[in-house]
Amino acid sequence: METIPTEKQLWDEAVAFTRDKSPGSFDQWFYGVQFEGLTDGVLCLRARDEFVREWVDQFFLPTLTDHIRSRTGWSIQVAWTVGGELDHPVIEPPPNRVGEEPNRLNNQARGIVLGGPSTGHTGHSGHAGHTGHTGSGNVQNLATASVLDDAAPWSERRVVRQNMQVVAPPLEGLNPKYTFSNFVIGPSNQLAHAAAIGAAGGGGRRHNPLFLCGGTGLGKTHLVHAVAHRVRAERPSTRIVYVSAEKFLNEFLQALQDQRMTEFRNRYRERCDLLLVDDIQFLASKTQTQEEFFHAFNVLHQADKQIIVTSDKYPQQLERMEERLISRFTWGLVADIQAPELETRVAIVRKKAQIEGIEIADDVLVYIAQSVRSNVRELEGTLIRLAAKASITSRIIDLDFARSEIALSSSARANEASVEDVQRVVCHHFKLKSGDLLSKDRHKSVAFARHVAMYLCRERLKCSLPELGRAFGNRDHTTVMSAVRKVKALRGADPEVRAHLEALERKLGTAD
Ligand SMILES: Nc1ncnc2c1ncn2[C@@H]1O[C@H](COP(=O)(O)OP(=O)(O)OP(=O)(O)O)[C@@H](O)[C@H]1O
């Protein structure tokens, strides 16, 4: 007979389920939330402030309450208390970082509270389904902005334009197709999307800086360009600076060489209202450039100028990056993007087909979305490749055609796999975080996964030992050699290890 879980167990299960979808974002919000009880379908929660309540209410509670409902059949009402002491937050707050101004986070929080009532008020919100957010305030404004994005802003913009004296200057490097209206929203990216909309609307301290992170090809750059397009259209006098971290570095080196540092600093400190920096991880180990960026950041942030940074990792996982810079990245909002689920992938392929004018049947859309799971760039590439091949060979893109083309390219891809692909697949298989294999973590399960990844890279990609040492967190080549030998020996001796390796090899041989 199935035992009935206690209410605390139900809550813990729902937390684990929800957190699993986006651990970084979950942790960021839930150290501002306390569980106070679950009785007769009423879930009592306390939020540090109104801002936390709104975000948690909008982005996390539908999943949480759905999970409890699926286990109990109850219709869940949420009773919030806002403000007061949080003695047992759902997530323990991170310890203060060494060297960080101790009150900075609190000051930020105080800045956040300014947006709404912060003490002692209680409220109810119904989550009897995905009924959405019942409160008012900033998040609702964000949501409205998002809904209006495709239609209303044009009429609004026309009004703006009638009164407009200023025409936004051209901005180098922006892709005209990377707009909010071309961005498909799903559970994997809705937080990042809402945060970007907020930042584009001059979100204030709560969105500053906005740190967008996630794996490659998942839409970070798209969102950053969308912010720039939106701001250019709605506030054309805003001075936007958009650079990749690599370009920032090159400009800095050139300015040093040409003794034009004043000009360089003016560009990034004085003549900038909105700074957008892509792929900040590129500054790893570039100490002097980090120092320069740090000062630019401080000047802009103190002047309440919006900063948006993208990265392939969470701030805490950035390696060889100054601690004080990492700490600043967490002052505002950290929003991650995960790989999209099937429904979102189908919607993305549909949208891309529509934008590119590609005629394609629904069953083929679904097949493409099912076959390419890793990232959106690859999904898009597959669609474009199919369309190009179909046009050259005068075929229509039907299911047979898609099947044979995707099979061809996935076997080619198996031969082209990179060290990063192997690391990603191994992390996924062993349920580790992307940085674990490169970290100094010697925990048995992490070390084993690391050895397996080294072995697979050596066997499949024929990488040299020093090359692999560098790719796995700058380890010595002898460490790699012993890891490869160990796994090779275990493969013969231990059926469990053999099963892991075979599963991984199968995964590496497929489109994912
Ligand atoms: N949700 C989405 N809706 C529509 N298109 C998307 C979405 N997510 C990603 N894309 C598309 O996928 C492609 C890759 O996205 P983008 O360049 O923004 O990725 P990224 O996260 O910046 O990757 P990288 O870290 O490699 O720079 C782009 O063409 C973008 O338009």
Task: Tell me about this structure.
By secondary structure, this protein is an alpha/beta fold. The protein folds into four domains: 7-126, DnaA, N-terminal domain (GMP Synthetase, Chain A, domain 3, 2-Layer Sandwich), CATH 3.30.300; 138-337, P-loop containing nucleotide triphosphate hydrolases (Rossmann fold); 342-414, Helicase, Ruva Protein, domain 3, CATH 1.10.8.60; 419-508, DnaA protein, C-terminal DNA-binding domain (Chromosomal Replication Initiator Protein Dnaa, Chain: A, Orthogonal Bundle). 55% of the residues lie in helices and 10% in strands. It has 21 helices and nine strands. The strands form two sheets. A five-stranded parallel beta sheet has the order 6-7-8-5-9, with helices on both faces. β7, α11 and β8 (306-311) form a beta-alpha-beta unit. The longest helix has 23 residues, at 50-72. The two termini are 40 Å apart. The structure holds adenosine-5'-triphosphate. Keywords: ATP-binding, Cytoplasm, DNA replication, DNA-binding, Lipid-binding, Nucleotide-binding. It holds the Pfam family Bac_DnaA_C.
